[in-house]
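Reopening: Putative serine protease PepD still failing for me.
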Amino acid sequence: MTDGWNWSRPPAQPAPGEPPQPPHPSAWWSGGQTDPWRDPYAPAAIVLPSSPAAEGPRLETPPDPDAPRRRIAPILLICLLTALMAGGVGGTLGFVFAVKGGYASNAGTQLGAPGPNTPESAKRAPESLAGVAERVQPSVVTVRVSGAIGSGFVVSANGYVITNDHVVEGADDTLSVAFHDGSTAAATLVGRDPESDLAVIKVAKEGLIPVTLGNSDEIAVGDPVLAFGSPLALVNTVTAGIVSALDRTIQAGEETGTTRYYAAIQTDAAVNQGNSGGPLVDASGQVVGVNSVIRSVGGSTTEAGNIGLAFAIPINQAKRIAEDIIDTGKARRTVIGAEVMTGESASGARLRSVQPAGPAATAGLRAGDVVIKLDGHPLEDGTSLIAMVRKYAPGSVVAVEYRRGTKAASASVTLAADTN
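Support: Ran it again with your exact input. Result attached.
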């Protein structure tokens, strides 16, 4: 039988006595003469090769199922050892690179993504608030007087410091200052002006870094500002805010003490006790005011805290008074040459009396006149007139608008220094 894929008709048998004809060669078989399965009519015979070189196809010896097989365990063991060695080398190299790159931690766990180098990330733009604070801090000092703490700022390389008068009130040999780096130095009182609440002290230290003084007449409501000082004994404190108002005329001082008048810069930067005498700085790092007064909703002055209402003496006024104190030992007080009525609401400052030959009299003002505006600034009462006059230097010429009866008038007044 056959499976049919190589079947062909068997050849005709030769007649008796005729020699057998050679079969047709097959394209599919080699050694067909010796293949008993090629032709079912061919006589069967078993032929043994006489030598290994005998021609004919050689059959491959089938594998012996009982022969011993090659073990696979050694191969697996070699693969395992190779993998372990590769992993160890890779882990070692990875650890070395991680340590050199700064990403390895002592705990063995890296938290957070890698960032820039610390020195680069610590830099701040000079015009940023952090840059301004970095420049100003070395010039700010903590003033210590008999256990009390206030603030101040260096205005000259040879040690002059501006602060508030109420900070150094009662100062004795215990007066000293501390700098932002923790160093301290003794200080002496140069002079004070209680009515303007300004004082100058001298620090026994050379090579100091003075602040840059700005122009308080050029600031505007909404300008960003920074307040420096030691509020509640927390030294090296910086708070931020804006200019909330300008020429805010207020009256301050204890009932039994000196009454102080301010045409102040109002700010919402957080200011507390201990900030007094510290600088108020604009966005360029220039001092525009001296932090002096805070407003509280109740309680005594010693219990007052920040509610977003703080007031600073304009630096133009503070600079002028400090120069007077340094040059002469005392400050000149600017006056208009008239006494005002207080405690009444007259939509202006009513003049109780006018000094003969004084600035107001020279400009034509009389007792009973109501000053409505000074240099364009509206006045609410007599306190407002005093505070605004103190803002200007002696010799300044200011425009005055006033009311006499039902008539309005105006005049130019040349302010003068108090002769007392």
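The longest helix spans residues 73-101. If you still see a failure, please send the error message rather than a screenshot.
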